[in-house]
Amino acid sequence: MSLLPIFEWVAKTPVGVAIAKSTYFFPVVEVLHLLGLSLLLGVVLALDLRLLGVTLRRQSASAVASSLAPAFSIGLIVAVFTGTCLFVGEPLKCFFNEAFWWKMGLLALALATQAVLFRQMTRPKAPVLAAQKAIAVASLSLWFGVGVAGRVIGFI
What is the pTM of this model? Predict the structure, then answer.
């Protein structure tokens, strides 16, 4: 089953048409999207670097994860909301753009990795194991992959 009819329907919705026709909506939302992503990736970077023992060594990984969880949630909400708005403004471009599909796949993997990581790391006295270091490297790779794929969307 192709998703094309769904993408075509999204393009024809009143919201999709309004966003596509607006001169200023798309660039403003794109800036907000980048701000949300910056917050999100800053949190991911801080936690993953802590797990790798590069930064914040005096604080436990669980304390870092617990203190950063609200910022992660805010960044994620902003990024998902604005990303949805960007998608609704040009769903057919996204459908035919290979980078969009890469971004969505990497995003799903990154979110799943982060959910496991945060759940594990926000437990009191969570130990830092070798497996967690591997997860931190995977997390960084996935999130930066999301960023690169997202940037490539505009060039394809």
Answer: 0.84
Task: Compute the distance between CA of residue 24 and CA of residue 18 in angstroms, rounded to an integer.
Answer: 11
Query: What length does the chain have?
Result: 156
**Amino acid type, 10:** V
pLDDT digits (tens, 9 = 90+) for 59-114: 888 888 889 989 999 999 999 999 999 999 999 999 999 999 999 999 999 999 88
> Could you tell me how far CA 44 lies from the centroid of its own chain?
10
DSSP 77: H
Compute the radius of gyration of the chain from its Cα atoms.
18
CA separation for the pair 121, 17 (Å, rounded): 43
The residue written with tokens 């026709």 in the block is 21
First to last CA, the chain: 25
> Considering its fold, how many domains does the chain have in total?
1
Alpha-carbon distance of 105 to 118, in angstroms, equals 20
What is the domain extent for residue 110? 4-153
* Segment 116-133, tens digit of pLDDT: 876 776 666 666 677 778
**Element spanning 119, H or E:** helix 98-121
